[in-house]
Specification:
The structure is a single chain. This protein is α/β, with parallel strands linked by helices and 447 residues long. The chain has 16 helices and 26 strands. The strands form seven sheets. Strands 15-13-11-10-16-21-25-26 form an eight-stranded mixed β-sheet, with helices on both faces. A seven-stranded parallel β-sheet has the order 4-3-2-1-5-7-9. α5 links the parallel β3 and β4. The protein is globular. Its EC number is 2.8.3.-.
Length: 447
């Protein structure tokens, strides 16, 4: 049977495809913008036929119909490896649980059998002339998940960009059990996040750390977007990209001539990433673009790979940092907001990179529900908050008031450095707390 005939022979209706799911199965929905709402809606219609089906996903951007249809969790139990806004809201209603991981290890969970997969449901491009469908904007653990699955169902969607590798960015028609036709709905786009004056102030400090020939990793949010905007308008030259997430600002930097990748030590000339989220500007840029290389996350986020590029500048957000240097970036108290993602991977990898810097960035304050100004630099983390980056790994912390380098510093030196970049109105209270914790020795360095 030739490739075209094999492909066409595997097409079934979406309702027929989801009949393969049985009670107590583990179903994986795929990752980020490549989760299939078409397959989810069909599975939801089978609710009353199924019990105990576990659904796993990675940052699904929409609220699944399976979960809406089953608010008692009698039929479907939903888990997310990295919370989206939709998952966060479901978590608040006790309808979604978080799967903890250090991101670069994710494919190994499937390879070692720690995470079984009965049915993988993915969204792909139509096959090329050689019979390969492409995973589009999300590569990180998709291939490993499909390798582990008993059955693979693929929604074919003409709107999915063909994102070149790299490696493991595609599956052959022969490796997929069923195809269903999608509705060709365009990929969801991230809304534009407003950039505040404080974001720009922090971004200016970050920009001062970047040299010609540096290699960039940017996280998600307004402040990393501000960094990208400023780089695009700068005179920096020959920047490289080795990042977990590719966002619109990389397109702006590339179009401005700032990114060439010619000074990279590995993947020279390539913008390396494991998933992309943004607007159509980004998705159009990625389509069949040989300057970009999609890799699985056990490559992009492996600290031993990250560090092979010199001058790795890794920029990530945080919710709070305590006076010991511990970073909380994924939960506020018991409330799960995001996930560990690649923050730990890149902070560690940047330190191993020759000339590299791992930057944890956060605004110095926030306003609580009572309208009171609170410090994001805290004596101790909010009880229940997850430590995303331990104090032994944390490198640099930046607020709008400056930058603190934490390596090699004692507890009192760390406290002093962090209080120096806290909001001036809140520093005296932090000093009192540090003193009570026996991590304070007043020196001439305090502002």
């Amino acid at each position: 049977m030739d490739i075209r005939s094999e492909y066409e022979s595997k097409f079934v209706s979406v309702d027929e495809a989801v009949k393969v799911v049985r009670s107590d199965d583990v179903v994986h929905y795929g990752e980020f913008m490549m989760a299939s709402h078409v397959l989810d809606e069909a599975l939801a219609k089978r609710k009353d036929e199924l019990n105990g089906v576990v659904i796993n996903t990675v940052c699904c951007p929409f609220t699944p119909q399976t979960i809406i249809s089953d608010p008692e969790r009698s039929h479907f139990i939903y888990n997310d490896w990295h919370f989206s806004g939709a998952s966060r809201k479901l978590h608040d209603k006790n309808l979604c649980n978080y799967i903890s991981l250090t991101y670069h290890e994710a494919p190994s969970f499937f390879d070692r059998g720690y995470v079984p997969v009965d049915v993988a449901m993915i969204k792909v491009t139509p096959p090329d002339k050689h019979g390969y469908v492409n995973f589009g904007t999300s590569n990180s653990m998709t291939h490993a998940m499909c390798d582990a699955a008993r059955i693979v169902i693929a929604e074919v969607n003409d709107a999915v960009p063909r994102c070149l590798g790299g490696s493991r960015e595609a599956l052959h028609v022969s490796e997929i059990d069923y195809f269903v036709q999608g509705d060709n709905r365009p990929l969801l786009q991230l809304p534009k996040v407003p950039i505040s004056d404080i974001d720009r102030t922090i971004a200016k400090i970050v920009l001062e750390q970047i040299e010609d020939g540096a290699c960039l990793q940017l996280g998600i949010g307004a402040m990393p977007n501000a960094v990208g905007e400023m780089i695009a308008q700068s005179d920096l030259k020959n920047l490289g990209v080795h990042t977990e997430m590719l966002v619109d600002s990389f397109v702006d930097m590339y179009d401005a001539g700032r990114i060439t990748g010619v000074r990279k030590q590995i993947d020279k000339g390539k913008m390396v990433y494991t998933f992309a989220m943004g607007t159509n500007k980004l998705y159009d840029f990625l389509n069949n673009n040989s300057s970009c290389a999609s890799y699985p996350v056990d490559y992009t986020n492996d600290p031993d790979i990250i560090c092979q590029n010199d001058k790795m500048i890794c920029v990530n957000n945080a919710l709070e940092v305590d006076l010991y240097g511990q970073v909380a970036s994924e939960s506020s108290g018991m409330r799960q907001i995001s996930g560990t993602g690649g923050q730990l991977d890149f902070i560690y990898g940047s330190y191993k990179s020759k000339g590299g810097k791992g930057l944890i960035c956060l605004t110095s304050t926030y306003v609580d529900k009572e309208g009171k100004l609170q410090s994001r630099i805290k004596p101790v983390l909010t009880p229940g908050s997850t430590v995303t980056v331990p104090r032994s790994i944390n490198y640099y912390v930046i607020t709008e008031y400056g930058m603190a380098m934490l390596k090699g510093k004692s507890t009192w030196q760390r406290a002093e450095a962090l209080i120096n970049i806290a909001h001036p109105d809140l520093r005296e209270e932090l000093i009192k707390e540090a003193d009570a914790q026996k991590i304070w020795v007043r020196s001439s360095k305090i502002s």
